[in-house]
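User: Mitochondrial basic amino acids transporter. Structure?
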Amino acid sequence: MAVDFYAGCLGGCAGVLVGHPFDTVKVRLQTQDSNNKIYRGTFHCLTTIIKQESYQGLFKGMSSPMCGLAAVNAIVFGVYGNIMKSVSSENSSLQNQFLAGSAAGIVQSFVTSPMELAKTRMQLQGQDAREKRTPFWQKNRIIYKNPLDCLLKMFRSEGLRGVYRGLACTILRDAPAFGVYFSSYEYLTEKVADSKGNVNTFSLLFVGGLAGVWSWIVIYPLDVMKSRLQIDGMDGNGKKYKGLWDCMKKSYKTEGYRAFTKGLNSTIIRAFPTNAATFSVVTWVCMIFDNPANRKLDVQNPSGVLILDQEIQTLTC
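Assistant: Predicted structure:
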């Protein structure tokens, strides 16, 4: 269990490191004003950030998910693993895997909600420097020094309610997302495994990426609304939205259905390298520690086949 936890943490860190630039692009596309667009698309947003803010701009707010990753993985793996252990192998259906994943998503939302609020606000800092004709010493003015400073300022101004702004939307997003992710991953893994339960490592990476894409497509509109609610009022002009339903109505009224799919391209692009990095690190950590209770890499096989213990559910990070 300890090896699984550390492997998940290291794999998750690798995934955050690889995927965070595209997450920054996603957040900026989700939250930009449709009447005053700064970015034309994924590639334009990516190049604009590099040009105006250097490569560091792509990694703004990354310390927030990095710091909270251990707690999130502990919750997700703990809740999902314990629920699946309480279910007999005969009843280990996709429905149970979906419900276990959904339960894990609900519980971990209480950690990820403030973490993502800080991350999102950090990611948006400095993007309007081009639009404002201010003295050069004010163009790079920052509101928050780091994620902790962001959360402290939110607490001072709005209390605990401000720190957990968007929590309901996060729960509505993460419950089905984790359910789809775990159940689709287990289903696809069984499909690509041979009669002995052997899965080629590259196939497993592809399965993880595909499961991630499916989970994002299912809940993506809620992710857009969550981002908008969490940065509402950040510009100092007061809040635009009263809540989730009000945000959905106003977004649809001003932008139509396209409001709910902003940044989806960058999210899909991000899903594959993120999961590839995560699973690669998890595989090698499990191989190094040679944990027989979960996953082992058959070092005798040069093709790199991952052997899955059929009695224990495979877990993603």
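Residues 130-139, 291-317 have pLDDT under 50 and may be disordered. The chain has one domain: 1-315.
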